[in-house]
Amino acid sequence: MGRENLIYFGVIIALVIAVAAPFVASSNPDGLESAFFGVFGAKEVQGSDLDEEAAGAAEEQVQEVTGNTFSFASPFPDYSIEGMEKAGEALVIVIGTLLVLAIAFGLGRVLSRSE
Amino acid sequence: MNIVHIPDAFIPLTQAAVYWVIALIFIALSLRWARNEMKEEKVPLVAVLAAGIFAIQAVNVPIPWGTSGHMMGAALAAIVLGSPFAAIFVLTLVLIVQGVLFGDGGITVMGANIINMGVIGGFVGFYSYKGLNSAIRNPYPAAFIAGWLSLFVAALVCAVEMAIAGTFPLEIGLISMGLYHAVIGVIEGGITAVALYLIYTARPDLISDNAGVAA
Description:
The complex is a heterodimer. Chain A is an all-alpha fold. Chain A has 4 helices and no strands. In chain A, helix 1 runs antiparallel to helix 4. By secondary structure, chain B is an all-alpha fold. Chain B has a single domain, classed as Arp2/3 complex 21 kDa subunit ARPC3, CATH 1.10.1760. Chain B is built from 8 helices and 2 strands. A two-stranded antiparallel ribbon of chain B has the order 1-2.
């Protein structure tokens, strides 16, 4: 496979993953979040039941512990567009993938030429 | 979709600032790597790895205990591009886009996420791969173990940060983060080895490019 082909193939794989992600990804809490819920009593470390109420309370409790109440309204919170379901998630993950590709390529070009 | 990186509320602002300072030092070193070591013909590969890592980080795979996990990608970037600083460069870009556009990972704590995933993931992944590959002379098992170890160590460092922050007690944090990420690490190691195999099969010249490249 040539130099260019590997790149095109890679971009296609990245886009396929991006489109599929919302449909195949697990909505279980991830490792850090699950550990957090375990510490704050919303879930057993080796259990699979999540107490939604305790989980919500935990997110307020942790702000009291750390005092970090900084909040930032991102344009597409949790990889979603309001009112659009999975298709919206797929769309924003595709946009994010292309954006990362473009920034990395642009910045890489500038830096690699600057010597 | 859910939280996958440290959110703002998990670390006090003063500690978050310290992590940002440390992260900025490593970001500066990664930019120096990009200027001095990254050849122009490697730029498309860097970009496609960054895009692929962004996409794969959105795929949470279910593991036992009602939990899920996703790939980090630092070991893969460091191994393919031949430097831990390449992983820092790639992961920093990915984390900025995730944090700013998608609220995935906090802004004040982004330095900590860059340290854990880029710096720890990149260094552990790169040097464990290098050591193992020279010992067993087979890049794929070496990449699997390096991927596993990079994620596992990053998770333990994260647990220590959580303990310093007062968010998790140290012991429970280490046990639960270690337990979950020992399993998630199998995904990290597996994808790292398979992706490396595909890349090296398509472009055998990249193997020799990386032989003997020091950090």
